[in-house]
Each structure stands twice: as structure tokens, then as C-alpha cells.
Batch of 2 targets.
Target 1
Amino acid sequence: MMYEMKILGIETSFDETGVAVVEINDDGKLVLHSNAVSSSIDLNLQYGGVVPEIAARSHIEFMTPAIKQALSQAFPAESDPWQQIDGIAVTQGPGLGGSLLVGLTTARTLAIIKQKPLYAINHVMAHPFAASIGAVGSAPELQDYKLPEATVEFPFLALIVSGGHSQLVYYSSVTEYRVVGKTRDDAGGEAFDKVAKILGLPYPGGLNVSLKAREGNKDNFNLPQPKFQDAPYDLSYSGLKTAVLRAAQSAIGEDYTFPSIGLSERLSEAQKADLAASFEYAALKMVVDRTKMAYEEFEPRCVVLAGGVAASPVLRSMLEAVLPVKPIYPDMKLCTDNGAMIAALGCLQAQAGVNPADPYSLDIKPTWPM
Ligand code: KG4
Ligand code: ZN
């Protein structure tokens, strides 16, 4: 079989070590050949959240096994799989400094030793390109991936909502995009995680709030919808988080001084379910309304969902109810952080003629804006 180009993608911006091989074939179609992801979240959760030093050390531990796994999954019969790799793509930012350094230093070193071109990728910009992956190779581990039937075409509108980012972006090409709106404070996924803590629900917060919400009534608590006159597409989650806290305090007859850690044992299961449902609806309505408005104003060819919150079936059905086109979703395993989205954008940038980075001088960009 003739392959146009195969790229090894490396992602280490937060707590997931992701390494994957993606091919761009003669027809320009992106094919996933492997996707190795290791997370340090269990270790981090012993300390109540992600500890940057722990995340960075875990990347060091996971990196070599992840690269080996990604290469052997993609090329099980090859004695030197590096011969098959045409380039390396790596997350340059944004993210945790120590974590980014591990991935970037690994990628630079490999690019020099193996003499491969190196592509420096913006993590947030890469998220929606997980939905551009249209096929999988023969690795047995990939056969249960549910890939989108529709093809992502430019210009497209992407709704990127995760634990670290929340924005609406209009992409006109692989290198040109415009941030239509973004959060002014917290990310949507982070708000789900905080509300899970208030309600005493276990990690992962978003998923458990969503499950609890199924038992509740979204109309039992009236939560705010922030709106900005000067930037109608901007989002905000910090006020909504506080509104949930205040609603929970008043539901048990206490005032704002009552500590959030004491709430979950005093709230009834019915109150928790109603709070979860009301919060989930308010949090998702905020992005759904803005996506609809942006769709009408910018008239993109498609709408792509990306980031951990894109895994929410409620978000999917709310969007489908208001948009005239069916949004395109990556497989759940490609919604959260992974090396495949980095490799996918690397393939597209290489094909578009983007210049590779200098492996001797490339540095991390922890605060790289999109
Ligand atoms: O993209 P992602 O893995 O990563 C980081 O930002 O690291 O997204 C994780 C986020 C978490 O905040 C989680 O609460 C949220 O995605 N999430 C959800 C759901 N599943 C995951 N939020 C709402 N509903 C869900 N079903
Ligand atoms: Zn991410």
C-alpha cells in the first residue's frame, strides 16, 4: 500500500501522556494507526487535583512505553518502525510548563536522532482535528473506534470545551482561524468538576454530574445565564459555579458562610439531582446558544465538537435540536487529550507546506494563546 505521510504525535500538556501515529493518505484522508494514552490522574487525585510536578514526572515515566506502544501498534511487523515515520508533531503549548517540557524535549531529541521534520502544534487548535480522522488502520485496539461519517470541511466552526479550555473558533484553513468567543474565567469542564465536588460526586466530575442530572429536574433551581454586551460570544462559568454553591447553601437553610465541603452530607439525593440537572442545563445552554448564534452569523460548512465536555450526550442532543446540520464528533477516546489530534494537525500542516520547527532551538509556550 502507498502511504503519503505518517506522523508520530506527542502530547503532554496536562496529565495525559499521548503518543499516536496518524497517516495522511493519497486522497488526503487521515487514518489512525495507533493511539497510546496514559494518565497520571489517579496519582494526582490523591492530592485533590493535578499537581504539576507529579504530572511532569509521570510523563517521564510513561513516555518511553507510550512511544513503544504507539510504534508497535502501528507497525507490528517492522523491526525498525522509525523507517515508516515521516515526521514528528508535538504540543508546544499551552499547558503546564514541566509537562510540556517532557514531550517537547522528547520530540526534539527524536527529531534530531532519527532525522525527521518536527512540527510544533498548539494544543487547543489541534482539538477539533481529532474529528478529521476518518479511518483506522488494522491494529485490533482501534477496531471499536466510532469515527464520524461526515468529513470535516473548511470553513468550520469548532466548539472546544474541556477541563482547561472553552472557546468557539472559526477555522478557515489549517493555519487560519479566528477565536469567535472564549471564556472570561473558568473552563466549562472545570465548572462541572467543581460542582461535582459541591455535590459530593466522585471523579470524573463531568460524567457524574451528568449521570446524577438524569434523576433531577432542571427547572427546580433558577441559575444565571451570563451575557456580555460587548462580546456576545464570550462565556463565563465562575458566576454559575458560585450560583450553584449559593443555591445549595439555601436549599439546606444555611447562608453564604456555610462551608462547601459540608454541603454534600446535608443535601438530599433529590436536591443533589435537581442541582446537577439545573447546573448541567445552564452550563450547556450557554455554549449551545452561542454556537447557534455563531452558526447563523458565520455560515460555516460544518460544526465540530471537541474537548472532554463534547463527550456529553446531553450537549450533543441540545446542539442537534437547534442546528440545521448535524455536528461532527470525534470518538469519545479522541475527545479528551491525546496524541492523535496532534499528529492529525501535524499531517495537515505538513501537507499545507507549513515549515518544520528547528529541533535545536524549539521551546515550550505554556501560555500560547489560540
Ligand atoms: O479534554 P479533557 O480530557 O481535558 C482536560 O481539560 O484535561 O476534558 C475533561 C473535562 C473534565 O472537566 C470533565 O468534567 C469534562 O471534560 N467532562 C464532561 C463529561 N465528560 C467529561 N462534562 C460534562 N458532561 C460529560 N458527560
Ligand atoms: Zn485539551
Note: The chain has two domains: 5-148+331-351, 178-322.
Target 2
Amino acid sequence: MFLPEEEARAPEKVRFFDTTLRDGEQTPGVSLTIDEKVEIARQLDSLGVDVVEAGFPSSSKGEMDSVARVAELGLGAEVCALARCVDRDIDAAIDADVDLVHVFISTSDVQMEHALKMSREEVMDAAVAGIERVKDAGLTCLFSAMDATRTDEDFLVEIVEAAEEAGADTFNVPDTVGIATPALMHRIVSSVRSATDLPLDVHCHNDFNLAVANSVTSVSAGAQQVQVAVNGIGERAGNADLASVAMVLGALMDVDHSIETEELYETSRLVERLTGVQVPVNMPVVGDNVFSHESGIHSHGVIEESQTFEPGVMTPEMVGHRRRLVLGKHVGRHAVEELLGRAGLEPTDEQVSEITERVKDLGDKGKRVTGADLYAIAGAVMGGLPEEEKVLELVDLAVMTGNRIAPTASVKAVVEGDELVASATGVGPVDAAIKAVQSIMNGFPEITLTSYRLEAITGGSDAVAEVLVEVENPEGDQAAAGSASEDIVIASVEALVTAVNRILAMGTDREE
Ligand code: KIV
Ligand code: ZN
């Protein structure tokens, strides 16, 4: 593929330095427990990052303990701790027993004068002393000239020369307040690069939505390492998003790295769940809409050939995501036919047109159209749906809940002729009941509940609740079903049982 000339300077392989557990945890409102940090660190390791920045040990006792726990996990990735260029911080990082200490100090005039109240000479001396302290302890040292993109260029060159002389192993160029444009970042990285033989690293913030562009441009200017965070979390508007940087480098710039891209989606969801910072549906690479198609033209295109309306160099399989055809007012008949076909239904051409019109009408009324709505419309237009063979038949359902006991559900069901019983606990009675049904289906390939929606049809404490569920099998086939009852647990289980039977009717066989 033809590459722009400037990309010719990119190194063959770029290292990923992940700062989800450090700068990411500095996202306002985010605080992770030690166990949560450990879970994320393990996932980052399996994702293939080169460095896990586990935290800032001198900032609190809990932070010290969590960095030390991550350091003793025996990860394949190097474990790093952050420290200011002060003895107390560096000693705390050394005590946490990490492989790598990341020392930083402000080098821009505005931060030296107002945040540090130090002169250039004092900053230079502190930087050198900090690096030497890390090296004397026998550890690898990454040095950051904080606010490098607002630092006087001559002073930045003096700092990088002094850092190299003092024994730093890598020099980081942070765009601390996210003001760099790709052109500025390219110029700064190129000029630092011509002043040192040290490997260069960049840390880009996203205040102007340029963090990813600035990171990959820095690579084209010769940076060998990028600092990123899962879902782009971090101070203010966050850091460069790990998934986007990995995909741009690998899929668009042909730069090698060690990220196992198939784990990007799962990693994003884990960090979303544990930090509570929601991933927007239109987030690149991992957002819910990245491989979703609603418009008739696009859906028809991707049914014929996915590259028509997707990048092609990035598929859902590559990033562990899934492709979805979405129902709504823009839907086309090809998507309707495809979705019904996957459920084993073969409407005539006229019926497909009628079903498509009715789906559009629902969408026009501002309603979110679900798979269950599609089945209901198809049933009405086709004069009823064929009874699917019932692999799973519910016999009994009992639920126990209260303010002092964990909600527990037991389910008795006939599965392919065998009467089976299973029970499970959950965060609530519905969750427990759904888990019990899932556990009774143990011998089958995993059927995932991908959507659960509850709506009250009538008012009052005896309101009828309508539950709509969508499930997916490992091949990515989806099925939906709905049920209504005054009892939301019963409605939930009935809807799930119907959806499970529908997906099994698509040919999901029991595993031997
Ligand atoms: O944004 C920043 O400059 C930082 C440094 C500690 C690298 O987070
Ligand atoms: Zn930062």
C-alpha cells in the first residue's frame, strides 16, 4: 500500500505503555479497588501491552498496596510506578518492587513558575537527581518532561541531553494539556529525536480530540512508544485511546505492535464496567455502533460484501466485536429478509415488503424497534409463526429473595427430553432466574443475553410488565422474544426460554 512520505520514519515496532490504572484512574470520579486493579492488569497483560503503569505509590497507602500487588502478579508486561522527582516518591516506587519507575517534572515556564515555583536550573537538577536515584536502585527509568509541548524548545533539548547523561532509559514527550496539533507534535518529536539516541515515548491528552492523531503522528516522527489508556480515560478529556491507536498503527500504517486486537472489545467492556465510565455508542473501534447498520443501502451493501460500508482493514472479528443489522425507520427489505431468514422464516416478497413498511412505521413513531417487535410484526403479516421445536420447556420456577438473603432461583425444565434442575443466585430475582436458565443449558454452546428491556404496559402495583430479550450464539446469530406478565420474573424467564428455543432452531447443537 502507498504510504505518505512522513510515515517512512516510523519504527517497525511500537511499544504500548498502558496508563489506564494511573492516568486513567485520575479520571474525575473514578476509584478502583485493589482487586479491580488486579483484574484490569491481568486483562491488559493478556491484551499484550508492553508496560502496565499500575499507579502512583506515594499518593496513598491504598495506591502503594495496589501497585505492589500488581507488581507481584508475575505479568509478562513490565510493571511501572509513577514518581515525582523527589526522594519520597521514588523510594515508594522502589519499595513497591516494580520493574520500571516513571519520574516526571514540569518543564514549561507556566508550570515551573506557578505549580513548582522552581527555576529552570532547579528543575534540571531535580530531574537529574531523580533519574540517578532510580538508576542507583538498579531499575529502568522513564523520564517525562511534563508539559513538553509548551516547553521552550531549547530548554527541552537541554533536558533531554541531561536525562540521557543521567542514565534515563526512555524519554517521554507529554502533551499534558492536549494543545498540540499533529503538525506541532511531529515537529517537537523530530527535534527531540535529533538531540538524543534515547527511545522516545509520547503521552497525549485529548482536550481537542487530537490525542490519537497526535500519538500516531509522533510514531511517524520516530517515537518508539505510545502511552495510552483503555477507552481513552484519564485526566479531563482523557488520554489517547488504546484501541484506536493500536488499530491505526496496525491496520492503516502497517506498524507492528504486540496488541492482541481480538481482545480489544472485551478489555474495553471490562474497564467500562469497573470504572463506571460509559463507552459512547459511536466510540471508534469498540463502540456499539461501529459495526451496526440500519440504513437500507448500507445493510444491503454489507449483506452482499461487508467491505462496502465498513473499512475492511478492520473487521468485527479483528477487534472481538460483532456486526449487527439494526431495525428502525431507515431499514431496508434486505436486512428484514436476512434477519427473518436467520430465524428460519421465509416470508414471500410481498410479506417482506409489508413487514419492512411496518418496521419503518414503528421507527417513524420514534420507537426503538427490537428483534421481538420484528417477530411480532412477522407473525401478524405471515398469519402466525411456525411453532419452533422446543428444545427447552419450562416446568417450574421458584424464586426466593429478601433484604438479608442473596436472591436465589431454581428452575426445573425439560431439555431435549431430559428433566433437569438448576439453581443460581444473582444481584436480583430476575438476574438469578436468568442465570438458572443459562446454567440448565450448560451442555450447549454459550448463549449470551445481549439485550434485556423491561416496560410497564399498565400502571399501578399490579402493572403488566413486558420484557423483551435478545440472545446471541457463538456464531453471532441473534434471536429475540418478548413476554408479558404481572410478574416480571416470570415474564423474563418466558421471554428468555422463547428466545433460546429460537436460537437453537437456527442450528445451535448441544456439545458432546
Ligand atoms: O499528562 C502528563 O503530563 C502526565 C505525566 C505524569 C506524564 O500524566
Ligand atoms: Zn497525563
Note: The first helix runs from residue 34 to 47.
